[in-house]
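To whoever picks this up:

The nightly regression suite flagged SMI1/KNR4 family protein as changed. Nothing in the input moved, so I suspect the structure step. Input below, exactly as stored in the fixture:
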Amino acid sequence: MGTAWREMIGGFPGARPGPPAGETALAGLAEAVGGPLPPSLHALLRESDGVVDPFGHAVVWSAAGIGESAGAGSDLLFFGDNGKGDRFGLPRRSDRTDVWLQEQDTDARKWVAPGIWPFLRRALRGDRFDWYVDDLGSLFLR
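Regenerated output under the current build:
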């Protein structure tokens, strides 16, 4: 995608991309997670080692941050959070690219986007930090 990730992130006021992750950091992350990264996450991190939303939350952690949270026991590879303890993740061992939210208090999971690109478009809009729920607490995708 070239610089498409950085350009997309930069198109949202208040959103901040990180510097590109180096190949050493990406290789270390692949080792920490026990295999290759999902291609979309790898491509994003090559251009932006982390993404901060307009509220100051790291909706995508750095490669080092992802590696620190990559412990065994989950079928999701967590890559970011909403600033309130709920984490966003991708399936670890699957050709699926869906992004899921795992709630901190209940460990319940909710599907939030069909991939990282649409996830970031929704998360970086900046109209509210909990863009994936409606006022009644139900899953709400806009």
